[in-house]
UniProtKB/TrEMBL annotation:
GO CC annotation terms, alphabetical: plasma membrane
Keyword set, alphabetical order: Cell inner membrane, Cell membrane, Membrane, Transmembrane, Transmembrane helix, Transport
Organism of this sequence: Dinghuibacter silviterrae
Topology with respect to the bilayer: Multi-pass membrane protein
Identification of the protein by name: Anaerobic C4-dicarboxylate transporter DcuA
Family: Belongs to the DcuA/DcuB transporter (TC 2.A.13.1) family.
UniProt-annotated location(s): Cell inner membrane
Keyword Cell inner membrane: yes
Leader sequence segment: none
InterPro entries: Anaer_Dcu_memb_transpt (IPR004668)
GO terms, molecular function: C4-dicarboxylate transmembrane transporter activity
Transmembrane segments: 12-30, 37-57, 77-99, 120-147, 159-176, 213-233, 253-272, 284-303, 323-340, 352-370, 405-424
Length: 428
């Protein structure tokens, strides 16, 4: 079902997951697992807030600042492009911010006669790897909820952000000589290309654009503070575990994120000219609907399979995972290839890791392995980079897997995992 759904794209993964659920429950009489309601609510809350910022012009303002920085140092585009994209995605909690940066990166590359494939490929990878550590990413919140101890969110961030940033720099270094250099003179755009990329045109910012960025930034700060100092949050008498509370009566981090981000959404709508209709029409809000359906179907199906076969899986993988914890990152990576979602992969793989007896720090170190949705070149960010590159240097190879993103993606993820293990020895 996952293989068929991944070929269908969009909500295909989710609806095919439900076909799998029907087979598991009605044919094999498996007991249904728990649906991923926590991850779905995180995605809904965070992406709604990002969509409000987009509707208010906040993303345009961030892209404007990023473009100024890139054009100030055009010769360093192979490193500067992905660094800027990394921090944009880290701040916004979504890889889709890269769409606005790709034309700028492509144009600057051509101006400096740098092969566009180099900065474009690693910039796409940077937009993905930045999410495993971003305080506004659903995958980060999901891992913190799965680990379940006070301060887990901060531990994920303090390991994930530097490990993924160093991994991204290694990925940028790996593409410095990738492919042939562009000729020093002559045309650079393919003859059969529809048209060359248009130069970026400065547009006036919407009123309230800066305000929306400040509100979004304040929401991030509150989420980080809540994760770092859980004692600041209200608590009640101990009781049973609920959707919003732990057994000891404290608020779950997922609950804090939902309250803070949706309250920030309200503040943006109240303090800027953006309207609810503008938010509903934004590209980020549309992408959220696709993500919700996909995560709901495929994660529920996977959780049902894992729970009903837990003893068999533990017997097959438990010994290897305990003796060589890093090998579990291969399992995570393969799941990520099939699921096309960091949050969905986290929700399926990390509980399995805990069931196999892997410690929390090891799972945090292996967290970047969920960023493997670029292996099959069908993810929208990859296709956008290929389409932007009218010079034809960014492409899918003859054998499909040998595409422009394979080298920077592998180097980035492997380096981030290695650095993550080193950092957990020092910081955790």
């Amino acid at each position: 079902m996952i293989l068929v759904g991944s070929r269908m794209k969009g909500i295909g993964l989710g609806v095919m997951g439900m076909v799998g659920m029907a087979i598991f429950v009605l044919v094999f009489h498996m007991r249904p697992g728990e649906p991923p309601l926590d991850v779905m609510m995180i995605i809904l809350s965070i992406v709604t807030t990002a969509a409000c910022m987009q509707a208010a012009g906040g993303l345009e303002y961030l892209v404007f600042l990023a473009e100024k920085l890139i054009r100030r140092h055009p010769s360093r585009i192979v490193f500067l492009g992905p660094v800027v994209v990394f921090f944009l995605a880290l701040f916004a909690g979504t890889s889709h911010v890269v769409y606005s940066m790709l034309p700028i990166i492509y144009e600057v590359s051509l101006e400096k006669r740098i092969r566009p494939e180099r900065p474009l490929s690693i910039s796409v990878i940077a937009s993905h790897i930045a999410l495993t550590g971003s305080p506004m990413a659903a995958a980060t919140a999901a891992l913190a909820a799965i680990l379940g101890y006070p301060g887990a969110a901060v531990d994920v961030m303090k390991i994930g952000i530097p490990a993924c940033f160093i991994g991204m720099l290694a990925g940028a270094a790996s593409v410095l000589r990738m492919g042939k250099d562009l000729p020093a003179s002559g045309p650079l755009v393919l003859e059969d290309a529809a048209e060359p990329a248009a130069p970026a045109v400065a547009r006036p910012l919407k009123p309230g654009a800066k305000t929306s960025v400040y509100i979004f930034g304040a929401a991030i700060l509150l989420v980080v503070l809540a994760g770092a100092f859980p004692s600041l949050l209200p608590a009640w008498d101990a009781g049973k575990v609920t959707f919003s509370m732990n057994a000891n009566g404290s608020l779950k981090m997922v609950t804090v994120i939902e309250i803070v981000t949706l309250a920030a959404s309200a503040a943006i709508l109240l303090l800027t000219p953006a309207t609810p209709g503008d938010v509903a029409r934004s590209s980020l809000f549309t992408s959220m609907a696709v993500a919700l359906v996909s995560v709901f179907g495929v994660v529920w199906m996977s959780a049902t399979f894992m729970e009903n076969n837990q003893a068999l899986i533990q017997g097959a993988l438990g010994g290897i995972a305990k003796a060589h914890p890093w090998t579990f990152s291969i399992v995570i990576f393969i799941l990520g290839v099939l699921m096309f979602s960091q949050a969905a992969t986290t929700k399926v793989a990390m509980p399995l890791g805990l069931a196999l007896g892997l410690p929390g720090p090891a799972l945090i170190a292996m967290f970047p392995a969920v960023n493997s949705d670029w292996v099959l070149p069908g993810y929208p960010t990859l296709l956008a980079a290929i389409q932007i590159d009218k010079a034809g240097t960014t492409r899918i190879g003859k054998w499909v897997f040998n595409h422009s993103f394979l080298r920077p993606g592998m180097v980035t993820v492997v380096t981030a995992i290695v650095v993550g293990f080193l950092l957990t020895k020092v910081l955790l």
